[in-house]
């Protein structure tokens, strides 16, 4: 069911107020907003319908509403207003970067601390180095009834194989055709070149063996990505304890245990083919412990075959507009800094107290 403009306006107001107060929002509070020209009764009815539709939740019978994960998702995708950084904020970020960044080898820890300080949330920074490894040759070998072995020789002579169950009955000639197509279209490619367009092109040329192509493309791309290396740093985990959502000790402990480099190590891979900022709201997160939190991430260029990523972890109530604006500005500034021919030595960043 498509939301009316009135429902969207009410939902945006609920999210904005909840971000500021961390308290359930009632219809009276929304009716008092300067740009809200509906009666309290009308707003109350709209909030009830938004709750039924899954965009809002009512924590207690007599309480107001709070945004649900679906509500935050719609807010991030369509409803939130652009947040313009003030001159003081841009100057503060610029000064922090210029004064506290020195070399790439110490960059991750410093960036994580700076982002955490700027957002007052736990922050992640990562640097991924592309390995330059590509697929050199493909072979497909029958391995008994209903299965085939995919053999991939990499450009540095390592050989990787995978047993694949055949979804359809194929002949030796079908595998020969597919092998020829793979060797003609998928050798010498970087992981980011394994696009949906490539998948479609290979499937169109694979004939009877087209059903095998998605498995082969996914396996090859993942194999090539794994040949690279990713380093990351996490900072500011204790900042979560200042948020009202984590006053519950058990809840805070579960989330805090997930905010380490090992648990968050798959986040940089999620940004491989992503442009701009990526937001994971609540249940969209990969770790079950983070189902009540949101993650906001964006990329920046380091140069020398390396890609950087910065992100924050926080309550689903976080101010998405402000956080995405600050992360985007950080990313743009860092890309410009690393694009310079030489980076002068700068003073060390002070440790957080």
Brief digest:
With 353 residues, the chain is an alpha+beta fold. The chain folds into 3 domains: 5-79, Arc Repressor Mutant, subunit A (Orthogonal Bundle), CATH 1.10.10.10; 87-130 and 229-339, GAF domain (Beta-Lactamase, 2-Layer Sandwich); 135-226, Heat-inducible transcription repressor hrca homolog, domain 3 (Enolase-like, domain 1, 2-Layer Sandwich).
Tell me what the structure shows.
This protein is 41% helix and 19% strand. With 353 residues, the chain is of the alpha+beta class. The protein folds into three domains: 75 residues, Arc Repressor Mutant, subunit A (Orthogonal Bundle), CATH 1.10.10.10; 155 residues, Beta-Lactamase, CATH 3.30.450; 92 residues, Heat-inducible transcription repressor hrca homolog, domain 3 (Enolase-like, domain 1, 2-Layer Sandwich). The chain has a five-stranded antiparallel β-sheet. The protein has a three-stranded antiparallel β-sheet with strand order 4-5-6. Helix 1 packs across helix 3 and helix 5 crosses helix 12. The longest helix is centred in the last third of the chain and has 20 residues. It is globular. The C terminus is likely disordered.
Name of the CATH superfamily of the largest domain: GAF domain
Please tell me the CATH architecture of the largest domain by its name: 2-Layer Sandwich
Tally of DSSP helical segments: 12
Question: Low-confidence parts, pLDDT < 50 over ≥5 residues?
Answer: 342-353
Instruction: Give average pLDDT, whole number.
Output: 84
Strand order of the largest sheet: 7-3-10-9-8
């Amino acid at each position: 069911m498509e939301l009316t403009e009135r429902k969207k306006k009410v939902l945006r107001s609920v999210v904005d107020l909840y971000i500021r107060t961390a308290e359930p929002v009632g219809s009276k509070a929304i009716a008092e907003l300067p740009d809200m020209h509906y009666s309290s009764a009308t707003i109350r009815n709209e909030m009830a319908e938004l709750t039924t539709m899954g965009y809002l939740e009512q924590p207690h019978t007599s309480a107001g509403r709070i945004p649900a994960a679906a509500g935050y998702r719609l807010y991030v995708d369509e409803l939130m207003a652009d947040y313009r950084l003030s001159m003081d904020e841009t100057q503060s970020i610029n000064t922090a970067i210029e004064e506290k960044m020195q070399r790439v080898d110490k960059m991750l820890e410093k960036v994580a601390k700076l982002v955490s300080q700027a957002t007052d949330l736990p922050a992640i920074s990562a640097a991924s180095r592309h390995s330059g490894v590509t697929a050199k040759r493909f072979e497909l070998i029958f391995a008994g009834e209903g299965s085939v072995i995919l053999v991939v020789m990499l450009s540095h002579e390592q050989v990787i194989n995978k047993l694949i169950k055949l979804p359809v009955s194929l002949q030796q000639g079908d595998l020969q055709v597919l092998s020829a197509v793979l060797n003609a279209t998928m050798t010498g490619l970087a992981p980011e070149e394994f696009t949906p367009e490539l998948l479609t092109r290979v499937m169109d040329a694979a004939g009877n063996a087209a059903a095998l192509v998605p498995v082969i493309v996914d396996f090859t791309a993942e194999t090539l990505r794994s040949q690279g290396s990713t380093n990351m740093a996490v900072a500011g985990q204790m900042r979560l304890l200042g948020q009202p959502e984590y006053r519950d000790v058990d809840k805070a402990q579960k989330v805090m245990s997930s905010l380490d480099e090992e648990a968050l190590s798959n986040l940089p891979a999620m940004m491989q083919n992503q442009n701009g900022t990526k937001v994971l709201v609540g249940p969209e997160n990969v770790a079950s412990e983070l189902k009540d939190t949101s993650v906001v991430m964006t990329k920046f260029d380091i140069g020398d075959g390396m890609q950087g990523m910065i992100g924050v972890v926080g309550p689903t109530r976080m101010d998405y507009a402000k956080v995405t604006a600050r992360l985007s500005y950080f990313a743009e500034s860092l890309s410009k800094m690393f694009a310079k021919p030489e980076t002068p030595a700068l003073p060390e960043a002070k440790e957080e107290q």
